[in-house]
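Lab notebook, design round three. We kept the backbone fixed and only want residue identities now. Task for the bench partner: fill in a sequence for the structure below.
Input structure tokens:
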């Protein structure tokens, strides 16, 4: 027992998790599917989303060559870290404007930008690179699931293309199992007349949040998860879906309540107003509510 999930403190939460894993031998391998939210579930999401930091870094570079970008309200709010203005503008509009900065790039060019960011980024409060922002207990859970021959996917509100670049090196999850918000593409001839994909500034389909997460799991993975993990109201539909199938399911809510080692905050959705607090939903529906403060003896690698 002590060799399994070593960063999870002994107690009811760890015992329930291990008991669930040990009770899966009767579940056919092709039905062993797990889906994890990314921000706030596999890595930290405060004080800002890491993908947002990536786009702000791109914006900062572009402002140097085109100062007029500062005149756009969305960019002015981001560059000045004006939280009130960003709240008024809304996350969707902010991300849409930032995405337009990379309009016309090929997938390969975008990937190169993300890799540069991955190799140089330092978190502004924790002071570490991306590898140090992943939750060690969740890495251990991913290993347990792989040992049980689970298909494991990342189901994120973030951009699919960004998360695809980091999912395998950070989580061991292949890029084809990343389900996120999609950007549009145009197929155009390159300078030698060969077909080439380039990014558009507009999104393709729905933002991958709330009910859309379940829809996109079916569209992209094609199998219902029996285990799902998240941390906000944006993950509620996915967690409920994991419990609604014929096989024994487990819904995991990460409760960020540790201001000393990470951050302390309620898991509210960013795109729409919440109803019932997600912590109360977890208690009412019998989810496994994981307290960062009480259930993890180590947070980061």
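Proposed sequence:
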């Amino acid at each position: 027992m002590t060799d399994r999930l070593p960063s999870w403190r002994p107690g009811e939460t760890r015992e329930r998790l291990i008991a669930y894993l040990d009770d899966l031998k009767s579940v056919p391998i092709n039905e062993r599917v797990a889906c994890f939210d990314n921000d706030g579930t596999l890595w930290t999401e405060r004080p800002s989303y890491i993908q947002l930091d990536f786009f702000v870094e791109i914006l900062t570079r572009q402002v140097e060559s085109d100062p007029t970008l500062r005149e756009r309200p969305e960019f002015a709010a981001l560059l000045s870290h004006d939280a009130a203005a960003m709240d008024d503008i809304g996350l969707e509009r902010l991300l849409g404007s930032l995405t337009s900065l990379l309009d016309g790039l090929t997938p390969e060019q975008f990937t190169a930008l993300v890799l540069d960011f991955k190799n140089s980024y330092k978190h502004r409060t924790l002071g570490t690179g991306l590898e140090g922002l992943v939750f060690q207990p969740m890495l251990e859970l991913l290993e347990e699931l792989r040992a049980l021959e689970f298909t494991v996917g990342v189901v994120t509100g973030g951009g699919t293309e960004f998360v695809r670049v980091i999912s395998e090196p950070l989580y061991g999850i292949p890029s084809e199992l990343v389900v996120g918000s999609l950007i549009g593409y145009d197929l155009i001839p390159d300078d030698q007349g060969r077909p080439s994909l380039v990014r558009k500034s507009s999104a393709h389909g729905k933002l991958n949040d709330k009910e859309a997460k379940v829809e996109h799991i079916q569209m992209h993975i094609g199998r219902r998860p029996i285990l799902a993990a998240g941390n906000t109201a944006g993950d509620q539909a996915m967690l409920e879906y994991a419990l609604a199938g014929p096989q024994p399911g487990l819904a995991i809510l990460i409760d960020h309540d540790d201001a000393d080692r990470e951050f302390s905050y309620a898991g509210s959705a960013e795109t729409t107003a919440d109803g019932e607090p997600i912590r109360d939903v977890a208690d009412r529906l019998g989810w496994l509510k994981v307290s960062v403060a009480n259930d993890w003896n180590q947070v980061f690698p």
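Keep this in mind before ordering anything: Strands lie at 33-36, 151-159, 178-189, 195-204, 227-230, 250-255, 288-291.
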